[in-house]
Design goal:
136 residues; mainly alpha; two-stranded antiparallel sheet; 4 helices; 7% strand
Length: 136
C-alpha cells in the first residue's frame, strides 16, 4: 500500500533506536502532518485520496467497512502520532491534539472513555461523530 497512512508514523516513534534514518522519519512525519492530521485525531487515509470516506457510517454511499481504514480516525493512533510530533518539533500541533483527546474522553460519547473511531470530518455544526465501539 503506497497510500499516505498513519501507520507510517510508527517509524518515527520507536524509542532509543532509529529504525530508519532520522531524515526519513522527519519526512514521514511532515507528510503525515500535511495529509492526515486534524486537531482531533489522525485520519486513516488522506482526504485527497479517491478512496477517502469522510463518514464511517454512510449507508447511502458505502458499507461502513469501506470507510473503516479509508478516512475514519482511530483513537489508538494518537499515541504514536503525539510521540512523532514531539520528536520532530511539532509541539504546536501535539499539545492541541492532546488537549482535544482529553476533551473527547471527558465529554464526547461515553464519559471517561474514548470511542474507537471518529468520522474524519466534523458535522456541519462543527461537532465530532464518535463511531465504532463506544469505549476503547
Amino acid at each position: 500500500d503506497t497510500k499516505l497512512r498513519p501507520n507510517q508514523l510508527m517509524l518515527a516513534s520507536i524509542p532509543f533506536d532509529d529504525f530508519v534514518p532520522g531524515e526519513v522519519q522527519a519526512k514521514v512525519t511532515r507528510n503525515a502532518v500535511s495529509g492526515l492530521l486534524y486537531p482531533y485525531g489522525i485520519a486513516s487515509l488522506a482526504q485527497d485520496d479517491v478512496y477517502f470516506h469522510p463518514r464511517h457510517e454512510n449507508p447511502a454511499f458505502h458499507h461502513k467497512d469501506a470507510a473503516y481504514h479509508n478516512g475514519t480516525i482511530w483513537g489508538w493512533n494518537a499515541g504514536f502520532t503525539v510521540t512523532a510530533l514531539n520528536r520532530f518539533g511539532y509541539q504546536d500541533l501535539s499539545w492541541p491534539l492532546t488537549q482535544n483527546l482529553g476533551a473527547q474522553i471527558l465529554g464526547l460519547g461515553t464519559l471517561g472513555s474514548m470511542s474507537e473511531n471518529l468520522d474524519a470530518l466534523p458535522r456541519e455544526d462543527g461537532s465530532l461523530t464518535p463511531t465504532g465501539t463506544f469505549a476503547q
